[in-house]
Specification:
Layout lengths: L12 E13 L5 E13 L3 E5 L6 H9 L6 E6 L2 E2 L5 H11 E4 L11 H10 L6 H10 L15 H13 L5 E5 L7 H18 L2 E6 L2 H5 L4 E3 H4 L1 H7 L1
Parallel strand pairs: 3-8, 3-9, 6-7, 7-8
Antiparallel strand pairs: 1-2, 1-4, 4-5
Helix pairs in contact: 3-4, 3-5, 4-5, 5-6
């Protein structure tokens, strides 16, 4: 289905992970390891799909890379800066400066217009730029929806807003968590093409997780998350 990423991609790696671990406490009070990834790298500009079923830990893996969750141990180097050593505010700054996140559920703010959603996303980085936010929305085909609210958009259009917001801060890395999971087949195909095209245009690397065979088949490079995650391997035994 595609070539697997090499564990050691050399000095040009944009993302380099080593000995990454994350566990949670179960309702019974036990600690359960969800992510245990010895090594992972992604090169600048590379587009890679991670294949994994629900519950395999791949969303937690993306949240660790984005700094939404704090790692228990290990390192997450993004362009040479270690996300795993930072406090919450430091992780927020590094995420705003270096990465964009496309959520399956879009996570748009319902009380704000399409344009305001993109501008608010930019505010956490270098600062809001109305002209650039407008240009990004034009790029995803929503120049006629700038003043609309998310509830006034179709599901596919909401996904396009999420793509524009993720790319608005010129991130070096875009993370996408099942980004087509809530879309029908046509919108899924169009949205995936848009995500990949806009990442290429902006020079951003793309790390996308999915269990959809159609999505995975469109990528030249695909990696089984279970082959990376020792916690998932242990759970399968």
């Amino acid at each position: 289905m595609g070539a697997a990423v090499r564990p050691n991609a050399g000095p040009m790696s944009l993302l380099s992970i080593s000995a990454l671990q994350k566990s949670f406490r179960t309702p019974e009070g036990e600690r359960k390891t969800i992510v245990d990834v010895p090594a992972f790298t992604l090169a600048a500009g590379q587009q890679l799909a991670l294949r994994g079923e629900s519950g395999s830990g791949k969303t937690t893996f993306l949240h660790l890379i984005a700094g939404i969750l704090a790692a228990d141990s290990g390192s997450i180097l993004i362009d040479g800066r270690d996300m795993a050593t930072l406090g919450e505010s430091g992780r927020d700054r590094l995420r705003a400066e270096s990465s964009g996140y496309i959520f399956q559920t879009f996570n748009l703010l319902q009380g704000y217009s399409v344009l305001e959603n993109v501008m608010l996303g930019m505010a956490f980085g270098a600062g809001s730029d109305r002209a650039h936010a407008t240009a990004m929305l034009e790029r995803v085909g929503l120049s006629h929806r700038l003043k609309h609210y998310p509830r006034q958009l179709s599901t596919g259009q909401q996904q396009r807003v999420a793509v524009a917001r993720a790319l608005a801060n010129h991130p070096k890395l875009v993370l996408a968590d099942e980004p087509t999971g809530n879309l029908d087949h046509r919108n899924a195909r169009e949205s995936l093409a848009l995500i990949r095209e806009t990442c290429r245009e902006n020079g951003a690397a793309l790390l996308l997780v999915s269990h959809d065979p159609g999505v995975l088949a469109s990528f030249e490079a695909v990696q089984d998350f279970s082959a990376l995650n020792r916690a998932d391997q242990e759970a399968a035994r």
